[in-house]
Specification:
Blueprint (H helix, E strand, L loop, with lengths): L1 H13 L10 E3 L7 E6 L5 E5 L4 E4 L7 E3 L7 E6 L5 E5 L4 E4 L7 E3 L7 E6 L5 E5 L4 E4 L7 E3 L7 E6 L5 E5 L4 E4 L7 E2 L8 E6 L5 E5 L4 E4 L7 E3 L7 E6 L5 E5 L4 E4 L7 E3 L7 E6 L5 E5 L4 E4 L7 E6 L7 E2 L10 E8 L3 E9 L4 E10 L2 E8 L6 E9 L2 E9 L2
Antiparallel strand pairs: 1-28, 2-3, 3-4, 4-5, 6-7, 7-8, 8-9, 10-11, 11-12, 12-13, 14-15, 15-16, 16-17, 18-19, 19-20, 20-21, 22-23, 23-24, 24-25, 26-27, 27-28, 29-34, 30-31, 31-34, 32-33, 32-35, 35-36
Length: about 400
């Protein structure tokens, strides 16, 4: 009988996979202007730039954002800092700004370009690149005092550039364009792309493994330095504007309609997270696997300290129960928080998950080894619609599932 019950549960689990999660908190930007790019040098200090020359800085992890004077009124599309003092911002009409004092002063650099510059990236205090419309690629080896045009061989709009060292980098853009250089940009070689749509962002975790995201929810991955790019299933049709990974497994993509996707398996599966906004998100940056920010339309700034996951509180009683058990949650119905209790008569590998009635996994509340005892889980379901959900406990051979009701 137990075996039949477990088979039923497995069928329920395998019938699907993706869902929304909570864990992104709005921050007050002080502007309603569109924010295009965000960059942090540590968990406290960061900058975001955007429309009308906006530059904002935080020194407290985003609790407050202070405007800085850029001296321009045009778009700034990308910001990059090499340390807490030295950074660059680029934008429309060939604009390049540099600061050497953390943004107290921003000074214009001569780019020699008139193109829209969409992204800037530095590998050290001297060596950097910026790219943009018409296939523009500019390089500096003297911290931006001089910018030299490089030949991309394309007139496509280049949107994002990423280097893993002073020689090896990639650029992506319109028409599914992907270029790679192995000599610091002296030569840019086209790579075969499985899409003809826009690619807006590229990110590499090492010389072999990288991702690019773009229009219509496109996500591409390579594990051989870009020789081959494989499409991944994002589960969204929203344009994706930015991708960021903290290791080879854990990454996020953000985009239109407030979409935030997360993967913990290198992109094999992407899970939609609850952003709490319908504003498009254009840039994401993480300082570790838990702490990150994303910025976007209307001055939107969101922060997570949980990797975008819903907060779950777990406590353990010291008494040793005699049998496995999963209790009915309380309160039930609930809005938006409820408590789930279970007990283990012996140490076990435990999985406690929440599903909707179609079998789609909503969230993993517990996953790992637990000592014998009684446990209490506090779960917050903000961002989910009202309805009937189920929660399932697996502990060794013990499996039990119960229903609960979210009623808003």
């Amino acid at each position: 009988m137990k075996r039949m019950a477990k088979v039923f549960v497995l069928i329920l689990i395998l019938s699907v996979s993706v869902s929304a999660q909570d864990g992104w908190v709005p921050q007050t930007s002080g502007t309603s202007n569109r924010l295009e790019s965000v960059y942090f040098t540590d968990a406290s200090t960061g900058w975001t730039v955007g429309e009308l020359g906006n530059i904002l800085k935080t020194t407290n992890g985003g609790a407050s954002w202070i405007p800085q004077t850029s001296g321009i009124s045009g778009y700034l599309n990308s910001v990059y800092f090499i340390d807490a003092n030295t950074g660059w911002a680029v934008g429309e009409s060939g604009t390049i700004l540099k600061t050497t004092n953390g943004g107290m002063n921003w000074n214009s650099q001569t780019s020699g370009a008139s193109q829209w510059l969409s992204c800037v990236y530095f590998t050290d205090a001297n060596t950097g690149w910026t790219i943009g419309s018409g296939g523009a690629i500019l390089k500096t080896t003297d911290s931006g005092t001089n910018w030299i045009s490089q030949t991309s061989g394309t007139s496509d709009f280049l949107m994002s550039v990423y280097f893993i060292d002073t020689n090896t980098g990639w650029a992506v853009g319109s028409g599914g364009t992907i270029f790679k250089t192995s000599d610091g940009g002296t030569n840019w070689v086209p790579q075969a792309s499985p899409t003809s749509g826009w690619l807006y962002s590229v990110y590499f975790i090492d010389a072999n493994t990288g991702w690019a995201v773009g229009g219509g929810g496109a996500i591409l991955k390579t594990t051989d330095g870009g020789t081959n790019w494989i499409s991944q299933t994002s589960g969204t049709s929203n344009d994706l504007y930015s991708v960021y990974f903290t290791d080879s497994n854990t990454g996020w993509a953000v985009g239109g309609g407030g979409a935030i996707l997360k993967t913990t398996d290198g992109g094999t599966n992407w899970i939609l997270q609850t952003s709490g906004t319908s504003n498009s998100l254009y840039s994401a940056y993480f300082t570790n696997s838990n702490t990150g920010w994303t910025v976007g339309y209307g001055g939107t700034i969101l922060k997570t300290t949980t990797g975008g996951e819903t907060s779950v509180e777990e406590s353990q009683d010291s008494g040793i129960p005699k049998v496995f058990a999963l209790n009915q949650n309380y309160p039930n119905p609930f809005n938006p928080s409820t408590t789930i209790r279970f007990q283990l008569p012996r140490a076990s590998t435990v999985s406690l998950k929440v599903y909707d009635l179609l079998g789609k996994e909503i969230e993993t509340l517990v996953n790992g080894q637990r000592a014998a005892g009684e446990y209490e889980i506090r779960w917050t379901a903000e961002g989910l619609p009202s309805g009937i959900y189920v929660y399932q406990l697996e502990a060794g051979d013990f499996v039990e599932t119960k229903k609960f009701i979210l009623q808003k």
